[in-house]
Amino acid sequence: MTGVATHCPYCALQCATSLHPAAEPGAVVVRPREFPTNRGGLCRKGWTAAEVLTAPDRLTAPLVRNAAGELVEASWDDALDFVAGRIRQLQTEHGNDAVAVFGGGGLTNEKAYALGKFARVALRTKNVDYNGRFCMSSAAAATNRAFGIDRGLPFPLTDVAGGAAVLLVGSNLAETMPPAVAHLAGAREGGGLLVVDPRRTATAQLTEDGAGIHLQATPGTDLALVLALTHVVLQEGLADTEYLAARTDDPDGLYRSTAAWWPERAERVTGVPAAVIRQAARVLAAAAPIHGGAGAFILTGRGAEQHSKGTDTVTACINLALALGLPGRVGSGYGCITGQGNGQGGREHGQKADQLPGYRSIADPAARQHLGAVWGVDPEDLPGPGQSAVELINALGTPDGPRALFVHGSNLVVSAPRLASVRDHLAALDLLVVADVVPSETALLADVVFPVTQWAEEDGTMTSLEGRVLRRKAAVTPPGDVRSDLAIFAGLAARLGCAASFPTDPAEVFEELRRASEGGIADYSGITYARLDAGEALYWPVPAEDHAGTPRLFADSFGTPDGRARVIAVDHRPVADDLTGGSPLYLVTGRLLQHYQSGAQTRRVVELAEAEPEVFVELHPRVAASLGVVDGAPVRLRTARGSMVAAARVTSDVRPDTVFVPFHYGGASAVNELTNDALDPISRMPEFKACAVEVSAEIAARGVPA
Ligand SMILES: Nc1nc2c(c(=O)[nH]1)N[C@H]1C(S)=C(S)[C@@H](COP(=O)(O)OP(=O)(O)OC[C@H]3O[C@@H](n4cnc5c(=O)[nH]c(N)nc54)[C@H](O)[C@@H]3O)O[C@H]1N2
Ligand SMILES: Nc1nc2c(c(=O)[nH]1)N[C@H]1C(S)=C(S)[C@@H](COP(=O)(O)OP(=O)(O)OC[C@H]3O[C@@H](n4cnc5c(=O)[nH]c(N)nc54)[C@H](O)[C@@H]3O)O[C@H]1N2
Ligand code: SF4
Ligand SMILES: [Mo]
């Protein structure tokens, strides 16, 4: 029996799965399916994903907060009428921008597209942004300015397997996309896997036994490290000068911007020995085509990007790739490892504050004209660019800010930075509407909760980390009175008197999305459900139905006006927090294999919750000893934003100047109580990955540790 062919609900690897009937009526089990990216593999989250479909506390009816402050069940009509009435009232009193929308990179292309249209056409608000701002924005900003196009991997992931060297900057691939580790085989065989991480992660361990080098840099110093790697490449005559002259706009700028970053200077900043920096640069260069190597890749993850200088760090990585002549060459390149299931497609079709579908700019008159025609509205009536996620959150409930917020596909009271402020802003709203599949921490704060369909209950498309568009297929009937986000947009648009159409059939939405994206950077106009169902591997752009798609970008030219990549001079700067006073350590945050994001889904899967039931803090043995803390003991963490208690996990895998806390837990266990919302000036990415923290033993509150 073949089952229903679909893809995993979670991360951007979008492993291929098939769904089969389970013993209980209406339930399904997940099996892996052979596919180039996952090669028949799945991680633990993928295997157990079906459990979220039947979560005991699954939302099955709309909820509206009553006069006593309790969320009580309501009919869809009553809930939609109530919300539409409040929206009309608030917009009459305060203007259209008084209503804001927050989307998510887990939504299908169809939902993300409809959400952006709902904001711009039905609510007519400029205030829309999404959680991809927390995820991909620094890499997107950097690739847009250097290459003119932002597609996470501008090549198929399987290309990486042939590379002789892979530099992973701030990615813990072995935990965040385990099946993708297979594609590092080529690099590991020849000693070419280079991993930059302040922790000896499962990924860093892959470099051991001669497979490569772990560069265990100080948090927040990747920029200095990559400038030094580039310095070595240029000074040792390892650069691809012909490529630089032919394909970039300013080869000299590369020399100028890295000249001062000799390895000994970078060693003082990063803690990585100068000799190791030189060795890493030589390993990477030897794999480059100019030196007859089998290919080299530079890939960034959130460890490099989620900083107040994330855009510049990625830019430095791109500059290093350009120095070695990698981008656009088959079997080499720079790529960013996209995170959420539809992190890629979610940022192409209009959830982002400054974008219209097809990866168009909302400020571009031609783009407004095109979308005006597709949507049947006057381009003049389309709002302009809105604010980025953190800025939007910080504006909620302020005198001139939005008074109402819709959340579709994010659990932001767990995942946004500096949570005390997030909670204050949500509390200051007149109306909070949350659409979710489960009562997430954010849904529990809402005035109205809409229960929505999830992955195995719906059709649609997702765009993976490779820019390949994939089919998601319905295999089960949703429980209770659950509807798609599409039905919420349609129901509210009609009640608000919006004349534009809001189809609820994903296939119909996709047909409209094709037209909306036509002629844009991310052109989906040649993609059809039929082509996807036939198994065609369609990487955007796909500008016509007889076009085979674009697995590799930049072969002949980049997406810039003159076709050349831009060399942008960048320089290192410290993290936003002050780490010089007192005796603070670096707090870094990130992921565990067992949990996904805010944990709203995976904390409801028994096997995963039991494997990692509670928040912990990784501490170096020296730090633990100085605090008198033993493994498992409670530890208090305090930053300028807040404080929390976590169980000590004592390990020499973390640098002695660094502690690590996973961000998958809610309430008092949410590490985002502590994180810094300092923003990157270009991408508006908050500094999730490095801040100053004071650590102490927690004895009083919990008693003496066992
Ligand atoms: N299991 C699991 N898998 C996931 C997800 C999940 O929640 N759980 N989420 C998906 C999503 S949305 C995303 S964005 C991806 C993220 O995938 P990754 O980027 O691999 O994940 P993170 O754990 O956030 O960060 C990676 C590493 O950055 C390191 N790091 C911290 N600070 C720094 C620094 O200053 N420099 C460097 N070089 N490294 C640093 C951390 O120690 C961590 O090991 O994963 C996707 N896959
Ligand atoms: N400290 C720290 N914080 C971080 C990060 C970090 O590394 N460190 N990483 C950041 C990153 S990279 C990301 S991507 C964010 C992610 O953080 P969040 O934005 O909170 O992402 P999720 O936890 O995936 O939340 C998605 C929600 O949508 C629901 N959902 C699932 N499918 C649907 C659907 O079809 N429709 C609707 N309406 N809802 C649905 C899920 O149940 C869940 O509640 O966290 C960021 N926060
Ligand atoms: S690696 Fe990502 S897509 Fe694959 S099974 Fe795990 S969570 Fe799902
Ligand atoms: Mo992400």
TrEMBL record:
Question: Where in the sequence is the signal peptide annotated?
Answer: none
Q: Which GO terms describe its biological process?
A: respiratory electron transport chain
Task: Please list the GO terms describing molecular function.
Answer: 4 iron, 4 sulfur cluster binding; metal ion binding; molybdopterin cofactor binding; NADH dehydrogenase activity
Gene3D superfamilies (UniProt xref): 2.40.40.20, 3.40.50.740, ADC-like domains (2.20.25.90), Dimethylsulfoxide Reductase, domain 2 (3.40.228.10)
Keyword annotations of the record: 4Fe-4S, Iron, Iron-sulfur, Metal-binding
Give the source species.
Kribbella amoyensis
Checking SUPFAM superfamilies in the record gives:
ADC-like, Formate dehydrogenase/DMSO reductase, domains 1-3
Q: Mind telling me which PANTHER family this protein's record contains?
A: NADH-QUINONE OXIDOREDUCTASE SUBUNIT G, RESPIRATORY NITRATE REDUCTASE
Which residue range or ranges hold the 4Fe-4S Mo/W bis-MGD-type domain?
A: 1-57
GO CC annotation: what is one?
membrane
Q: What is this protein called?
A: Assimilatory nitrate reductase (NADH) alpha subunit apoprotein
Q: Does the keyword Iron-sulfur apply?
A: yes
Q: Output the SMART domains linked to this UniProt entry.
A: Molybdop_Fe4S4
